[in-house]
Specification:
4 copies of one chain form a homotetramer. The first copy, chain A, has 10 helices and 13 strands. Chain A has 336 residues and is of the alpha/beta class. The A-B interface holds A 24, 27, 32-34, 36-41, 70-72, 74-75, 78, 98, 101, 103, 105, 115, 117, 119-120 and B 24, 27, 32-34, 36-41, 70-72, 74-75, 78, 98, 101, 103, 105, 115, 117, 119-120. Chains A, B, C, D: Residues 17-318 form the Carbohydrate kinase PfkB domain.
Chain lengths: 336, 336, 336, 336
């Protein structure tokens, strides 16, 4: 048995919960958005990307979210279905909400920015009443995205979902996923992310995202991965993953182990989606019962594939593609 | 002298006021938006389109509006400048407003729809304090778009602009431009559009748009162009133009004349932008001192060119292109 | 026939439209509110006060407004009914609005202030759909209060009511009644008050209130009663009344006449309500067909009675009480 | 040592946090509010009442809250100071918020209702930035009121205050204090009250208030005090108090003890304030290190005094008054 205790008799492996939006990626890259002419449409949002990644790797996946009652909302549901994701719990807003948009501007591989449309978005209208306890009880794991905490009633839906998950022994992954533009202040984000993190089994975030949780603890930031892991492993969490960008990832368990994941070389088109690709493949590995380091390697290889492509969700690789990447890199290193 | 008394010594011919937004037109046409993949970006918004049309025809033009403080806002200003439009009175919002978006879905030439993003948009943040009386006093004419009346403080900016225009004998064109999604109700739209119409020299609208003004008069709709014109010519207006789509246009003056404008054949890609092309070329003609019917013909020819193309603002033709269209059609008819 | 042409065959003399609220007047006067202990409850709001004044003088009166669905709303309706005012067109809000409150602090006769509760108030929820054209057509006159213009949908209800009034030859009195706390800015107030004033037969306001209308004209304030009257008499208005506090009132007609009204001595308890008492009695006089100066005298006497008492609405005098005040003063002066 | 571990070296005994408002109690009782004429002004709000009660009993008390920048806000601060409560951490709102109001209507001793003004109230503008960690570290105990969770940013201020309390070993009392009118739904209230309750040392509430917390657990309500106490004593709480109105109170500790508190007879004027009086005196008793049942008796006697009077805060008794009530009742019973 792995580090997290998945109820093996459940029909659904993973349910994602939270943001479903549209990415509009500039086709003309390496220039400011004033000079781009055309955009390509993709499904986006961190939990959507991670769930698509997991489904592409073969997990049985579902989603809990809310979409707008328009062409974009219908497109999102259709895309998830085509990716093999159950959408029975994707509600449709009837109050005039819109789909969140993310226009991406790729000035250079290391200088990307996003222009967001987050006013009156459907994903943040998900409410506790949209949840189906029976549905959740059929899943091995639930992935919560921190952006779903940004506003009511989505914020309350997250806490209610965590309650159902706890009641039915659904393993909870929490991707902190901090996006400043949806919050009033970093402190507000930290306060709610901390409350959610206290109720999750595995917390995944970047260094700055873990700092955010510390903001809400009322002490000067320690910015120390070991302290961070030590703190959170005293709560419900069994596994803490700190993503460190180009420096790879560090995973901590309750036995005091530290697992270090490296990165793979890539011809970087843009950095968007790296974290989601990592998380999707890492969760897949953990749910296969793999050693933690193997899951980290799988995550890093997936990330290196996604940053070399133009999209996020659409570029999520299959297990074979990831393995091929790993094998090629390993043989290169042997030769070198 | 023409029907409207333009102060000929003014350096600016026409100032547009109101909506500046981004059109994202689906490149894959004749299918629902769920199936489109890419979009091309254009500057949009009825008064923006009309002002671009006028500038392309050679009028000296300026704009009064507000844009977002982001790549889209900068793109709009840059586009207007390249079109030869003065942007000295285009303010930049500093409160986090976004640029309005219009995603167009072209299912067939006659079945087009628009998915709008109008929450928290910069154009409706234009306030009376953003106006510059001195700037307005330098113009022969002002074009007001009805959508600028949809919310405060833009609504108040319109009434203040009309006050300055009246004080400085600037001729005012009012394009009713009713877009239901920005209003609480049709009656609300009608009430403010009526208040603005009472203060304008030339009112341009579709039959349904003039009906809207009647809603606010508290009587059953008459839906009669002659009654409409008769009513409005008793106020400040000297010229009433009813656009009737495929049936052409009707213009009325205070002498009891009715001028009928026909339409030009076109291979219609989409119907968006036809009204703006007509208005831009019609206003141009009126400002040249042309006979009203000649201005109507010019407007109709321009509309026929725009509906055959993929965009609105970008497709606005030059005077030569319009004249060529008219000449070809005239000779065709002679031959036929 | 008097200066304003009232349709004499109408069953209702005057309909008030606008604010209905509760005044809570400190019983312990001449001290700051921190030290007051108890408050007495009265119906308040400028148009309510004026309509009560008119009804007490014997006019057949009605009211168009909206009250909260609670004890305060029911109290207001009950009070109006007891004052003999028809409340058939006083709607009840069903969306959780509250009754506006005005806590008055009477530090000294000349230093009074008001602490207002104006968030989510029922009176500003009056909408065009709440109006009954048939009801309005039964009235000789309509009194509009400027505070009803402060927010949508009440703002639109005012413009719609003015449309019905115009259609049915109902004489319109406009009391500018500027209350800064309900507006975003003085300019916003000025813009809408000006639009309404252009459609009224008689405009009543203080010097500062007429200045407000000038703010919206885009020129430096002239602060000149003669200019003010001259300007407005070029619109629909037949009668302009400038209230000058202790200096009395000035009324102007289209024939170039200026009528000066003086004031009456009073033991002033508080200055609140003086303007409403004046307006109620002045309108009464005008509707009796009196000479303008006689109506001004009647208004001034009524004001002197109200400022000597603790309340506004409740203290509105009868015609006999006003006449007695006038007679006593006249005989005093003769003796003196 | 008592059941809760108070740091005895702290200068402040108790800090209240949350609602500060004005009660306006009808002077004419036993009739509907439509018929009341005058109101008397008192400081109100559950945590304000409890803190006043504690101060009157001799505790060294402070308050963390926010008041409006007007006469009512100044009155509240002045009243707290006169009651001996430190107001160094009562912030003043500068954004135009008002003081919450509660008009009480006492139709009969058992039929009281409240008309609330809770739009844009200052108390719910308390933000995490208004908190002073140093101040909190000087207190033995913190009293949190559930109404402070009703809206942001006050909601976040509560969670931040609980964090500081935990960090500095400040004992936390949580009074659920559910007031439906400030919440979107009972479920929303339950979700946040549950999150706060999980972090408190002593939870005090009525049966229906504990039901609210269960709503957020996703199971049918058990409505069973024993189950309730058992559940909450598995979290941080050491002491659970269920108030049962006329049936007295039940207190539970972690050793499995159940303490039953009875009630005292009273000539009931109104039932408002009974719970706050109980809580104030109960907390006082607990902080004196008394047996739990003695604290319950003290609380019940205080409640019986307050329900016999016209106000809440102002009627909070001294320790002598409570003791006298207890002694009189005891001797009556002995005689009887």
């Amino acid at each position: 048995m792995g580090i997290l205790n998945f109820k093996q008799d459940r029909p659904l492996d993973l349910i994602g919960l939270g943001r479903l939006c549209i990415d509009l990626n500039a086709n003309e890259i390496h220039r400011p958005m004033e000079e781009t002419l055309t955009f390509t449409k993709y499904v986006g949002g961190s939990p959507a990307n991670i769930t698509v990644a997991a489904a592409r790797l073969g997990l049985s996946a579902g989603f809990i979210g809310k979409v707008s009652d328009d062409a974009f909302g219908r497109y999102i549901v259709q895309y998830l279905l085509q990716a093999g994701i159950d959408t029975g719990c994707v509600a449709v807003d009837r109050e005039g909400a819109v789909t969140g948009l993310a226009f991406t501007e790729i000035k250079s591989p290391t200088d990307c920015s996003i222009l967001m449309y987050r006013d009156n978005v459907a994903d943040l209208k998900l409410s506790p009443a949209d949840l189906d306890e029976g549905y959740m009880s059929k899943a091995k794991a639930l992935l919560i995205s921190g952006t779903a905490l940004a506003k009511s009633p989505s914020r309350e839906a997250v806490f209610m979902a965590l309650e159902y998950a706890s009641k039915h022994d659904v393993v909870t992954f929490f991707d902190i996923d901090y996006r400043p533009y949806t919050w009033t202040s970093a402190l507000e984000a930290g306060i709610y992310a901390k409350l959610a993190a206290e109720k999750c089994d595995c917390i995944i975030g970047g260094r700055e995202e873990f700092d955010l949780l510390e903001l809400a603890m009322g002490h000067p930031l320690k910015q120390d991965d070991d302290w961070t892991a030590g703190h959170w492993l005293k709560h419900k969490a069994q596994l803490i993953v700190v993503k460190r960008g180009g420096d790879g990832s560090k995973a901590y368990d309750r036995s005091g182990n530290i697992f270090r994941g490296s990165t793979f070389p890539a011809e970087v088109v843009k950095t968007f989606g790296a974290g989601d690709a990592f998380a999707g493949a890492f969760i897949y590995g953990i749910m296969q019962g793999w050693e933690i380091e193997k899951a980290q390697t799988f995550g890093a290889a997936s990330a290196s594939i996604v940053v070399s492509s133009h999209s996020c969700s659409d570029a999520m690789p299959t297990a074979d593609q990831i393995q091929e990447k790993i094998d090629r890199w390993t043989s290169n290193q042997l030769i070198g």
